């Protein structure tokens, strides 16, 4: 709505978006099916929405029209994973944790 400058976008703020997301998460966490309240996750997600990366996207992100094709950012070509390979998973011998790092 903001990036495409749809009517009412000028009323939106990043802080408001963080508040709405936090309230939605709090509501979900209160339901037993979602594992219960986790204050660390809740606070981390809230701060993630307020991060400099999110703020940059909020201010400079592209206008994605409805029906636009979504693309992975960064592209998989620009990332490397230390996740176990298929043969290591079956053997259960991988000493590496599963995470992905961005290659500049």
Verbal overview:
This protein is mainly alpha-helical and 104 residues long. The chain folds into 2 domains: 1-64, no CATH class; 72-104, no CATH class. It contains 4 helices and 2 strands. The longest helix is centred in the first third of the chain and has 16 residues, at 14-29. The mean pLDDT is 76.
Concise description?
This protein is 40% helix and 6% strand.
List keywords for this structure.
single chain; 104 residues; mainly alpha; 2 domains; two-stranded antiparallel sheet; 4 helices; 6% strand; globular
User: How far apart are the termini?
Assistant: 31 Å
SSE topology string: HHHEHE
Percentage beta strand: 5-15%
Q: How many structural domains in the coordinates?
A: 2
How many DSSP-defined strands? 2
Task: Please describe the topology of this protein.
Layout: H1 14-29, H2 39-49, H3 52-60, E1 79-81, H4 86-91, E2 100-102
Antiparallel strand pairs: 1-2
Helix pairs in contact: 1-2
């Amino acid at each position: 709505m903001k990036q495409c400058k749809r009517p009412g976008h000028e009323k939106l703020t990043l802080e408001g978006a963080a508040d709405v997301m936090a309230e939605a998460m709090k509501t979900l966490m209160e339901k037993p099916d979602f594992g219960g309240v986790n204050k660390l996750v809740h606070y981390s997600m809230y701060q993630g929405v307020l991060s400099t990366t999110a703020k940059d996207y909020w201010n400079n992100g592209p206008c994605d029209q409805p029906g636009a094709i979504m693309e992975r950012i960064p592209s998989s070509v620009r990332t490397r994973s230390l996740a176990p390979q298929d043969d290591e998973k079956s053997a259960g011998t991988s000493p590496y944790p599963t995470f992905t790092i961005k290659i500049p």
